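Next comes the chain:
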Amino acid sequence: MPTISVVIPCYNGGRFLDQLMASLAQQTFRDFEIIIVDDGSTDPATRAKLATLNPTIRVIHQVNRGLSAARNVGFSESRADLVMALDCDDLLEPTYLEETFDVLQSAPPEVGFVFTHERLVGARQGINKKYFNVFDELFENRLAYSMLIRKAAWRKAGGYDESMRDGYEDWEFNLRLIAAGYRGIEIPKPLFLYNVSMQGMLMNHSSRMHAVLWRRIRKKHSDLYRISNLVRLFWETRTARTEISPFRTIGALVLTSVLPDSWYSAIIHFVRGRRLSRSNKLSGSTASQTALRPDSRSTG
């Protein structure tokens, strides 16, 4: 029986698998299994790649049911008590599994998951620092989707909501974990490499539906969003790390109440797009400065 199961949903993502498998092969922690859930891929190259993977990798085929359903199938089929979900276009630093396992193994039962910071690659560069604050999490997803999770926590939380096919399934699942009484521990290192794409679900679709999706989340977790509970959580977490001010939370609740969904979603999409553009300019400036240095040459 493996100690960790790595669950990888894959929909037409065969072109990423070689790099991902190389990343997992470099893990310093070796007692893990790999489960790839083929979510009804139609791309011939992806289907061919899946058919030629190392036989130690378990490949589960299903009709297309979405990311949440693929993850739930992977968790259900996992043999380990600790599971992590990993999208096929993302990567891990070599010590990711080792460091998250060491922390979760020694943590009390109410710690349901361990996560790290993100190193952003692709359309955005930099470090995205993740943290656990229940109050902040109600207004913005501040946790990485890729976490080492106790399978018992996933089961008690009810798994991923398979109706969330327009995005934010990770955010909604994190609130399920919180509602089930679990908390997470942060490892302040960028051990997770997150591939940002303008064609990805977040920027290309979910941001444009932010108002609708967040309302759906608030409705599902109405107890967490009660005013009395918000006040209590704010008071209890006031000394913890936070990046969301009370004025911002009040503003978000007011705007989503008075503005049409399309207007509020457009604001969120615009703000995220500006962040992405600003990040690209900064990374481009850094790259230009590096290129001008006398010693900045490739050794490969």
In short: The longest strand covers residues 183-196.
